[in-house]
Design a protein that fits this description.
The protein has 125 residues and is an alpha+beta fold. The protein has a single domain (3-98), classed as PAS domain (Beta-Lactamase). It has helices spanning 18-27, 39-54, 98-112, 117-123; strands at residues 3-7, 13-16, 61-67, 73-81, 90-97. The protein has a five-stranded antiparallel sheet. A hairpin with an 8-residue loop joins β4 (73-81) and β5. The longest helix has 16 residues, at 39-54. The chain is elongated. The two termini are 22 Å apart.
């Protein structure tokens, strides 16, 4: 499942779903603030903010793949969204933890090919 986050340009979280919250925890190991936006993700958001400053009349969608030191692989999409409850435009982030995504594909393939438990273990490597 995709993680969904809505942020202000001041890095304040307006909304975060459970998937994104868990992913942020993985990316911030040892942090007491699991909902803190990881620096890698904020860097992509900051690029979006800079793009809007440079090209105010254009619509942008930025995608990135991030591979962290804590062995987390994340696909990120960032775009602008205007909410009725918030005066300034916000950043809409879709974040997907790639390892789990790839593991699910491998498990589906293993089931499709009728692999044994041992073959499945090797397939997941």
């Amino acid at each position: 499942m995709n993680g969904i986050v809505i942020l202000t340009t001041n890095r304040e979280i307006v909304y975060i779903n459970n998937s994104a919250h868990r992913l942020f925890q993985q990316m911030n190991p040892g942090s007491l603030q699991a909902s803190l936006v990881p620096k890698e993700i904020w860097h992509v958001c900051h690029s979006m903010i800079e793009s809007r400053n440079l090209f105010p009349h254009q619509s942008w969608l930025i995608e990135a793949q991030v591979f962290t030191d804590s062995s987390v692989a994340v696909h990120i999409q960032v775009q602008w969204i205007q909410l009725e409850a918030v005066e300034e435009p916000c950043l809409l982030l879709l974040v997907t933890e790639q390892y789990q995504y790839l593991k699910n594909i491998a498990l589906t393939e293993a089931q499709h090919y009728g692999l044994t438990s041992r073959e499945k273990e090797i397939w997941l490597l």
